[in-house]
Amino acid sequence: MKISVLGPAGSYSEKAALLFFSKCRPDDEKELMYSPTIENAVLNLFNEEQPADFAVIPLENSIEGAVGISMDLLNEKEVTINAEIIIRIEHSLLSLETSLFNIETVYSHPQGLYQCRNFLREKLKNARLAETDSTSKAAQMAAANPKRAAIASAEAGRKYGLNILETNIQSVKNNRTRFVLISKNDAIGISKSKEMMDSVSDAFEKKNGKMDLKTSVISYLKNDQPGALYHILGAFFKHNINLTRIESRPAKKELGDYCFYIDFEGDRSDEGVQDALKEAATQSDRLKILGTYGRLSE
Amino acid sequence: MKISVLGPAGSYSEKAALLFFSKCRPDDEKELMYSPTIENAVLNLFNEEQPADFAVIPLENSIEGAVGISMDLLNEKEVTINAEIIIRIEHSLLSLETSLFNIETVYSHPQGLYQCRNFLREKLKNARLAETDSTSKAAQMAAANPKRAAIASAEAGRKYGLNILETNIQSVKNNRTRFVLISKNDAIGISKSKEMMDSVSDAFEKKNGKMDLKTSVISYLKNDQPGALYHILGAFFKHNINLTRIESRPAKKELGDYCFYIDFEGDRSDEGVQDALKEAATQSDRLKILGTYGRLSE
Description:
2 copies of one chain form a homodimer.
Chain A: E1 2-6, H1 12-24, E2 31-35, H2 38-43, E3 54-61, E4 65-66, H3 68-76, E5 79-88, E6 92-95, E7 105-108, H4 110-115, H5 117-123, E8 128-131, H6 135-142, E9 148-152, H7 154-159, E10 163-166, E11 176-184, H8 190-198, E12 206-207, E13 210-211, E14 214-221, H9 228-238, E15 243-250, E16 258-265, H10 271-282, E17 284-297
Helix pairs in contact in A: 9-10
């Protein structure tokens, strides 16, 4: 089983992938494919020679919000969400050096730099900040030169032989990222995904004894229908369906044209959910169903 | 009059600021304060020695979506939106070189790299990509070494003595960014802002002969009230108020806690708007009004 994640080794995406496989597929032989970018991690699903079975990508962070490129890829590519995986993000400052004093450049993913900006301003205000495609890439960069530091997980520090100068340096201590495990539709589409996850349902979180399922859809609202979003939310409200997230993304035609990502509690095969989705479809030019899936947390 | 923008000279933020001042305050003496980051551009309003009168910051792009840091600053700081300014974003590839062949590194703001990723993949697939805090900073970096190129505006290229190797290289040709002109509340608060803009109302876009006004608010929904967002949208719908944008941002407490940015057509002093806002307030733990403002477009 091949799983595509943001690399190099030691990324939070890898951590999410490993959590999923240790809980749901502990006996499978697995191979991690490390990709330089989130886009490449998803494109690996469509690789003709060596396709990945799954990709694990970050969708939103509790401080920084939506990961735009991941949301766009869910929309553009024919993929299914099979599971969500919640990972605690605890950033450390890592370096070959043992003191902050000699550090000239701090590397991290833009979200890492952003989440730790108060620490950087207080403790490393003369250091240059340099963005990398992943936090583990930053750790790799820091391992090449003692004048460099990285913001990444303590695990990444150990992996690249770095000292851990400070831990838990992000401004908001309760920092989590929500990852999704996705597959190519014509490999593991929505129905097969459900079946597959049901077979390991014990691994997932429960609510009232049942797997706590969530469904995700993307709606392109009908432009000529005033209040289309209001009516869609009304359909869910009427059927007592809890929305857990509403996020807009540009529809990429005109400034001011959006599509909406809606996550809600429930299984897409539930009767009430089906009714609500039918009503949502009448208010949408296009309604894409991304999947029904369970949750794993660290 | 001091205006704080993302620098160095030649940024799209500067272009937005100059458009505003040429249309609304052509006779004022103005001084641009160039800031290395968006956060610094806003903090300049609160500088005790040399406060800026206004800051111009990007809020959303038609391809890449919301600019998270700008949205967070509107929420955290006591500022008023005085105007929105829509700028066409046409990226060029700039270098001291005249051919693509010798370029080793391409610099740009992350949004610039993202918006031009198809071009980069096709034409410069071996070049290293390096992120900068602004597109004009990228142009400045490219001017230091012929092996470098920048993605920035053609104007920035001319400013830094670079060749324009290709123009209009972003994937979606119709690419616009919405900037906002903001001021510190206790310098130019909401009422004074209205008065000030009314005095130059001819500069702004019209609808049915009147200034085409928009109002922006941020709502923290009451968590214990199911369907709170649905009811808020209903209040606007009932009063025939068109929503132009709804965007969620993390409330930064728990993953899954959001606040909502809502933009709608109309003046906050209109009776219908006031009624809708009153209803919205009953569904909100906190409702912050960012301002009522007109629009300028390139």
